[in-house]
Structure formats: C-alpha cells, structure tokens
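Q: My collaborator sent me two sequences in one message, no labels, and asked for predicted structures for both. Can we handle them in order? The first one she listed is below.
A: Yes, handling them in the order given. First sequence, followed by its structure tokens:
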Amino acid sequence: MAAITIRDVPEPALRGLKRKAAEKGMSLQAYLLDLVTRDGTTPSLAEMMERLGREADATLSTSDILEAIDGGREHRW
C-alpha cells in the first residue's frame, strides 16, 4: 500500500474534513482513506457511459415494447 502526503491544505478545508470525520466517528486518517478509496474505485461518468454503450441492447422496436406491455396486461385479467 502507498502513503500519500498532501501539502498546503487550506485551513477551512482541513477544519471541514475534521468535522466530517468526527460526525462519522472516524479519525481524519480513516475518513480520508475511505474518501480516497471510494473515489478511486468508482467509475467515472465517461467510463459508465462507455460500459453502457457496450452492454446496451437497442434491438427492440417500439412495437416490440408495446406488444410486451399488452401481453403483460392480458395476463393480469
């Protein structure tokens, strides 16, 4: 695991981070590690859009969808 040092953090930002950590009952170290881990492992919007483009199946037509809706309604009665 790597160690990260951040220099010149503005005092208002540091106070806010300490406050948020305390509100969650965490040390500043644990809070920042959680924050960095979540951000570093969450895909970006561009990555999500790329994945959606690869996985989306747009072969259904409007009539296919309407037929499925009508078929579902028939089974309710």
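Q: And the one she listed second?
A: Here it is, processed independently of the first:
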Amino acid sequence: MFDSLKALGNLGPMMAKAREMQAKIAEVQARLPTLQATGTAGGGMVTATASGNLELIKLDIAKEALAGDPEFLADLTRAAVNQALKNVQELVRQEMQQAAGGMDLGAFKGMLGA
C-alpha cells in the first residue's frame, strides 16, 4: 500500500517532465517549415529539396538532363524527390526524438510523416 503512495509522489515530477517534453516537441513542430533535406539522382543531374512539412521546395535539373529522354528525366526527378522526402522524414524523426529526451517515438510514427 505504501509503495502505491510512493509512486503517487513521483507523479508531480513526471507531469512536469511531460509538459517540458510537450513544449520541446511543439518547438520542433513550429520549426518544421525551416527544416530542409535534399535528395539527388543521376549523379547530381537532378536535386530536390524538401521541407519538414514534406513539401517540395526546390528542384534543380541540370541542362544535360533536359536534353535527354523525358522518361529518364521523370525517373530521375521521382528518385530525387523521394530521396529528399525520405531524408527530411529522418531529420524530423531525429529532431522529435531529441526533443523527447531520447524516448522512442515509434508509436507516433504516423504523426511524423513516416
């Protein structure tokens, strides 16, 4: 019975820690538009940059790629964009995990865009 009461004594610090973690996660969420990651394809012929909001914000295509096969260019573009999105998802995951004090956020994977 007394062990249960001892556990209740820890509730206050646990709640304070939870509020602190929530505030840090909210800070990361507010910074999502500023987080960026890139992906490349075709040896740098196509470079895509995505934001932490999982939006494509920049796409660079080398002139040589424009002169080639349109299907090949589409494949390169798709690969670069997908790599940029994958890279920014990983960056957001790392930022969120750091904000959560290293706690595994696997249960919240859907919220992180993964």
